[in-house]
């Protein structure tokens, strides 16, 4: 049986489309793959437009091996009250400032939900997890280096579900994404490594290249 991973959405909607930005959409879709088929991923505190848009996108992307995804306009506390009877003790907040490191034992029954403040991937970090920290959740950290939200979820799943200790997961810190002989971009985050490359959401490399080219338009 898998766990429930909940993202308290903290990113503003795109100014033009009035829904989540494309890179957020890619990361959120990636979370379903990383969480696995036995799990659930809840996206909370979304605008009405973003909730509808993401639900429609997720309905198009149904495949084996990925988690069920549900989008909510309500916040995390409302969902905990509705689904867990208001018990904060069953919810683990992934917090860079937590005293304890996440361990495989944290998946042995103490916690049912794992909570992330998304998007976590600010550079420099803005500590938006502070908004959740004050609510009093038990907390764990994933190490000192900043991760994207989908990476943080993927690491958490490997630790608590797959029972892989945090330090045994292969990582790449601040990788350089090369598009061709001349163009590249350095990512200021820590990623899970797969075949020597950072594990990016499908479509993210193309989006990064597109955004980089927009920066050179005059």
Spell out the blueprint of helices and strands.
Blueprint: E1 4-9, H1 22-35, E2 40-44, H2 48-60, E3 68-71, H3 76-84, E4 91-94, E5 113-118, H4 130-133, E6 139-140, H5 149-160, E7 171-173, E8 176-178, E9 184-186, E10 190-194, E11 197-198, H6 204-214
Parallel strand pairs: 1-2, 1-5, 2-3, 4-5, 4-6
Antiparallel strand pairs: 7-10, 8-9, 10-11
Helix pairs in contact: 1-5
Nutshell version of this structure?
The protein has 218 residues and is α/β, with parallel strands linked by helices. The protein has six helices and eleven strands. α1 runs parallel beside α5.
Characterization of the model:
It is a single chain. This protein is α/β, with parallel strands linked by helices. Helices cover 29% and strands 20% of the residues. It contains 6 helices and 11 strands. The strands form 3 sheets. Strands 3-2-1-5-4-6 form a 6-stranded parallel beta sheet, with helices on both faces. Strands 7-10-11 form a 3-stranded antiparallel beta sheet, with helices on one face. Strand 8 (176-178) and strand 9 (184-186) form a beta hairpin. Helix 1 (22-35) runs parallel beside helix 5. The longest helix has 14 residues, at 22-35. The relative contact order is 0.16. The model has no long low-confidence stretch (mean pLDDT 88).
């Amino acid at each position: 049986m898998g766990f429930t991973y909940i993202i308290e959405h903290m990113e503003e909607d795109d100014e033009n489309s009035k829904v989540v930005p494309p890179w957020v959409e890619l990361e959120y879709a990636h979370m379903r793959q990383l969480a696995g088929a036995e799990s659930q991923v809840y996206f909370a505190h979304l605008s009405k437009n973003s909730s509808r848009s993401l639900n429609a996108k997720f309905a198009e992307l149904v495949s084996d091996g990925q988690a069920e995804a549900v989008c909510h306009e309500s916040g995390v506390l409302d969902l905990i009250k509705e689904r867990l009877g208001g018990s904060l003790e069953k919810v683990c907040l992934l917090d860079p400032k937590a005293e304890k490191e996440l361990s495989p034992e944290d998946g042995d029954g103490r916690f049912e939900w794992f909570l992330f403040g998304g998007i976590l991937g600010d550079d420099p970090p803005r500590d938006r997890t502070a908004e959740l920290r004050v609510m009093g959740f038990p907390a764990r950290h994933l190490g000192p280096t900043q991760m994207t939200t989908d990476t943080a979820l993927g690491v958490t799943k490997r630790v608590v579900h797959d029972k892989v200790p945090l330090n045994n997961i292969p990582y790449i810190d601040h990788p350089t994404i090369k598009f061709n002989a001349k163009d590249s971009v350095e990512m200021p985050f820590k990623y899970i490594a797969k075949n020597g490359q950072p594990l990016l959401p499908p479509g993210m490399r193309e989006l990064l290249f597109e955004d980089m080219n927009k920066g050179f338009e005059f």
